[in-house]
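Researcher: Checking consistency across runs. Here is YceI-like domain-containing protein again:
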Amino acid sequence: MRPFPPCRFLALVTALFAPLLALPATAAWELDPERSRVAATVVQIAPTGPIAHQHEVRRLAGTAEADGTLRLPLRLAQSDVVERMGPLPPWLSGLTEHPLATVTTRFPPQRLEALAVGESLVEVLELSVQSGGTTHREPLAVRFTREAPGRVRVSNAERVALDGRELMANPTLRSVLLLLGYEQIGDEVPVLLDAVLLRR
């Protein structure tokens, strides 16, 4: 499978919130932060050989508008990278709460409404990612499973991998990877989506 651009890593997390757009305006759904994450496996190319490292993006939050549009800002502070690096250099600490990208998507209500408990559906979402003054649009196949009347699990519907070369070509991401000691990484960075939405 051809690795896709790093902008899709940011777009992946939007899929967590798509069910919010598929429900009546009177129903309120929120992510369970303890069980919602996006995990990535970064393979460090070291002198002694490849070393796999696990990283996560957590504490995700988004708001669905009345017209069914969801906008999700993503920040460095939501990842475990900040915890692992400890005290950050001044130039980077100021960026932890600044949105690195904003992801926008919409989801057809009738598809999720028709799901019974125990049933799943796969939907290809159209994701729009705004970052650094540019906008990228990418499709993403996502599986929604209704585990209970008030609970929906969201996960990858297919294998997903970022392009490691493009990650290293991004100045901000490259700086973070270098601070972690990753001078070189593998060409593919597999990504796993696992989240739970609860009715409030």
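Researcher: Does this match what you'd expect to see?
Model: One thing to look at in this run: The radius of gyration is 17 Å.
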